[in-house]
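Researcher: Next entry in the queue.
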Amino acid sequence: MMDTDKNEERDELRGRFTRFMEICVRNARSNYCKMLSREIPTISIEDVPERLLAEENPPEYKSGRDFDFEEEKLSEAFRTLPLMKRRILTMLFVEQLSPREIASHLNCSVQYVYNQRSLALKSLRRIIANRSDDA
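Model: Structure for this entry, 135 residues:
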């Protein structure tokens, strides 16, 4: 009788541990997949085919100065946004948090996060367009 109680207890303990490990592995896999999706895809110069490197007319890219100028305009426009909209955009695009995570972090509704994101992006577009027209 005592032997069966020990075995049942051991089986229950084994079952709890197995479930715990399944949850840990699932969460670790989820975190790993999120981390991979946040990485910027790159290719090393060694992996680029030589024929592309030897082309006389390589594909045209925007110069770094053009990018810096656009980045500066965006940065100036971003600074004009209200604090809450800046925080939401930062959490969405820099920290790569989901709207649900942001809502729980800011103690607001998910719909509020979506609305503020939409309004902030509209404001940024309008500000940048106005500054482009002035230039």
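Model: The radius of gyration is 26 Å.
Researcher: Noted, moving on.
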